[in-house]
Specification:
Elements: H1 3-18, H2 28-58, H3 74-101, H4 103-125, H5 129-151, H6 155-181
Helix pairs in contact: 1-3, 2-3, 2-4, 3-4, 3-6, 4-5, 5-6
Length: about 180
C-alpha cells in the first residue's frame, strides 16, 4: 500500500515527461503542466518586474519618448496577456508531443523567455538602450523560431505567439526611437 502512491506519482511523471500520445486537456497531468507553464512564464514576468520597477518609476519618465509610446497602463495589460498566451502555447505543444517529443521547440521557448528577461535587464536594469535594442533583435528572432517550431506540433500554439511577436516588433520600434532621441 505504501508503494502505490509513489507508483502513481512515478507514472504521472512518466506521463508528463515521456509520453508520446496527446493528453486530454482536462486530465490532471495536463492541468498540472498548464499550471507549470503559467508559473514559468509569470515567474519570468515577476523577475522582469523586479528588475524594471525602480527604473520605471525614476529613470524611464525622464527619457524623451516618441508620440507612438502607449500610456503606462497599457504595458501591464499587454504583458499579462502575452505571458498567458505564451504559457498556453507551450502547454499546447507539450500536450501534442510531451517534453521529449517537443524538446527542441520547448528549448527555443525557454531561450526566448531568457532573452525576454535579458531585454528588461539591459533596458531598465542597466539602462543600456542601444544594447537592449541589439538584444531585442535576438529576442525577435527567437520568438519567430519558436513560433515556427511550435507550428510543427500545434498550429494554434504558433498563432498564440503572433501577438507577442507583433508587440516585440512594436517594442523594437519604440526602443530604436527612444535610443535615437536620448543619445
Amino acid at each position: 500500500m505504501t508503494g502505490e502512491p509513489a507508483g502513481r506519482v512515478a507514472s504521472g511523471i512518466y506521463l508528463v515527461c515521456m509520453r508520446t500520445a496527446p493528453v486530454p486537456a482536462f486530465a490532471m497531468p495536463s492541468l498540472a503542466a498548464l499550471g507549470a507553464f503559467l508559473v514559468l512564464c509569470f515567474g519570468v514576468a515577476t523577475i522582469g518586474g523586479a528588475i524594471t520597477s525602480d527604473s520605471v518609476a525614476t529613470w524611464y519618465p525622464t527619457l524623451a519618448k516618441p508620440a507612438i509610446t502607449p500610456p503606462a497602463i497599457a504595458f501591464p495589460i499587454v504583458w499579462t496577456t502575452l505571458f498567458a498566451l505564451m504559457a498556453i502555447a507551450a502547454w499546447l505543444v507539450w500536450r501534442a508531443n510531451g517534453l521529449q517529443g517537443a524538446r527542441g521547440a520547448l528549448l527555443l521557448f525557454a531561450l526566448q523567455l531568457m532573452l525576454n528577461l535579458g531585454w528588461s535587464a539591459l533596458f531598465f536594469g542597466a539602462r543600456q538602450i542601444g544594447w537592449a535594442l541589439a538584444e531585442l533583435v535576438l529576442l525577435w528572432l527567437a520568438i519567430a523560431a519558436t513560433a515556427l517550431a511550435f507550428r510543427r506540433h500545434d498550429r494554434r500554439a504558433a498563432w498564440l505567439l503572433l501577438p507577442y511577436l507583433a508587440w516585440v516588433s512594436y517594442a523594437g520600434l519604440l526602443n530604436a526611437l527612444i535610443w535615437q532621441a536620448n543619445r
